[in-house]
Amino acid sequence: MKINPRSLMASSINSSNHGFNATPMALLPPIPLYRRILRTHRKHLPKQMRLLGDEYVKKEFRSHKNIENPIHIIGFLKEWQMYAQKLEGNEWIGERMDPAKIEKMSGMF
After folding, report:
1. Which of 102, 87, 85 minimizes the C-alpha distance to 21?
2. Structurally, how many domains does the chain consist of?
């Protein structure tokens, strides 16, 4: 991923209050985010889920390595950062995945 630092600083994560967040959060660069996700997997997931998650994360980051479109880069990093925050906060336990997101992921293969 070829990152423009300016595009990362202005990004914010959608919150439950109609897409507005009082304090915009800067996105982590790809390598620190990747490491954070793997650490979060080690800390919060059972072994089998961790192995599956680590494999998927590695595959996704490799496949997006040469993306140059800033919109795709920001979207990619934003989704993975929200994922890491969700795991760290244990908000994911018992939560069902959005059917639209499942359909979107299924269409990729």
Report:
1. 85
2. 1
